[in-house]
UniProtKB/TrEMBL annotation:
Location in or out of the cell: Cell membrane
Assigned protein family: Belongs to the MreD family.
A single Gene Ontology CC term: plasma membrane
Keyword list, A-Z: Cell membrane, Cell shape, Membrane, Transmembrane, Transmembrane helix
Transmembrane region(s): 51-77, 97-119, 131-151
Membrane in keyword set: yes
Mode of membrane association: Multi-pass membrane protein
Top-level division of the source organism's lineage: Bacteria
Gene Ontology annotations of biological process type: regulation of cell shape
Descriptive protein name: Rod shape-determining protein MreD
Length: 169
């Protein structure tokens, strides 16, 4: 369990640094694909709600430290998404292309909804997506396309990421 947790943390930290230092500085991209969201979703789909919530929280903390967003906002949103993904533990077949793409699409829409919901309580400090904006639609498309590729890449680490499974009930 400790090995799985630290392996997931290392993967999340590498993607957080890649996302915030390299991808965010590419001027041609209107939006940055959310690798951390997809990784947290993958961890929760394979290890359950608890691991998904912890992985989502850790990915959110990494982003909270690396961005100028209000502290805790990313952690809250990603914890909810990680926990929600854990409800589908071992139910979905993640081997193909369609289901991971659909999951990436759904997680991005859920993230936009949760950010909008948080912005209702903190309208001045929390920026939310306009769902018809180019930025949101580009991020949605990129996350949908990248999800099957990233799921396949993360399967390389399955031996060190899997630990005792939760019950599905």
């Amino acid at each position: 369990m400790i090995r799985a947790f630290f392996t997931a943390l290392a993967i999340l930290l590498c993607f957080a640094l890649f996302e915030s230092s390299i991808l965010s500085n590419i001027q041609l991209l209107p939006a940055v694909p959310d690798f951390l969201l997809i990784c947290s979703l993958y961890f929760s789909l394979n290890n359950g709600r608890t691991f998904g919530a912890v992985g989502g929280f850790c990915s959110g903390i990494f982003l909270d430290f690396l961005t100028a967003a209000p502290f805790g906002m990313h952690s809250l949103v990603r914890t909810i998404i990680g926990y929600s993904g854990g409800w589908f533990l071992k139910i979905l077949n993640l081997e193909g292309v369609f289901i991971p793409a659909l999951l990436g699409f759904s997680a991005t829409v859920l993230k936009a909804f949760l950010l909008w919901l948080v912005s209702l309580f903190f309208p001045v400090s929390v920026a939310h997506y306009d769902i018809l904006s180019v930025v949101f639609l580009c991020e949605l498309a990129m996350n949908t396309i990248i999800s099957p590729i990233l799921f396949r890449f993360l399967r390389i680490f399955d031996g060190s990421l899997l630990f005792g499974q939760e019950s599905v009930a």
